[in-house]
Amino acid sequence: MDKSLAELSDDEWESLCDGCGRCCQIRLEDSETGQLMETAITCRLFDNDSCRCTQYSRRHVEVKNCVSINADNVSDLYWLPKTCAYKLVDEGQDLHPWHPLVAGNHQAIKEAGISVYGKTISEEHVHQEDIESYIKWV
Length: 138
Known about the structure:
single chain, alpha+beta, two-stranded antiparallel sheet, 5 helices, 5 strands, 19% helix, 13% strand
């Protein structure tokens, strides 16, 4: 990409999102170690079929702790996956071959197994006492 994140128009910024959905996964922090654990649980606004937010323009109203990814904070968001296009561009790296802007379609990311498509459950369907069973222990 020839531009920095700060130089992107709003449309360019939005098209850079690969639609993996991993930023919409619920993460839990271990209170003793501070370790951040990814879960197979997604925000209640996440649509698993499209791997997009159903209330994108209102997400911060609907979900108070929804994090906005922007040019100023992307380098601080250590929990974003290494494959995140925003991180890659911020670090001067190339987009992956399965990225929609490279592949020319949104199916390639699903076929590559990068997206959370079909791998998660909405927080609306998870009982509090069952959350631990959805933690991805690495």
